[in-house]
Amino acid sequence: MLDCSASMRDDGGLARAKGLLLALMQEAYQRRDHVALLCFAGDTVELRLPPRRASAWNDDWVAPIAAGGGTPLALGVRRADQLLAKSETRQRWLWLLTDGRSSESPTRPEAADVACVIDFEAARLPLHRARRLAAQWDARYLAAGGMA
Prior knowledge:
- This protein is 34% helix and 24% strand.
- It has helices spanning 6-10, 13-31, 59-62, 73-86, 129-137; strands spanning 2-3, 34-41, 44-53, 93-98, 114-119, 140-143.
- The strands form two sheets. A three-stranded mixed beta sheet has the order 1-2-3, with helices on both faces. A three-stranded parallel beta sheet has the order 4-5-6, sandwiched between helices.
- The protein is globular.
């Protein structure tokens, strides 16, 4: 799940998230995993990459992903839960790349066997919402700033 809200764009988080997304997809390709990508912003959730076996990726694939609007986190999480529930893989992972700039605090998707929240918050006054969401979900938490 990729947060494409205006705050991600304005703080440079989206550009960093795209780079990390490419790295995650490359790892998935090497392991021959199945992947999907949901982008959420404004009041919509877009299935940018339907569930499929991972393939080779490059910058041209992520460049067109734009940002703007609010953060419909709960809507995105519901859609991710639906996708994961349909998956027949042995272990279902949910990666959430976000700056946490949402007042919503949805419950962890039931279909996610493992959840990871990667925090791209770069505000001068951090809210630490992504960290709290990870704790609430009993998910792995990673600060994007420490992932060089």
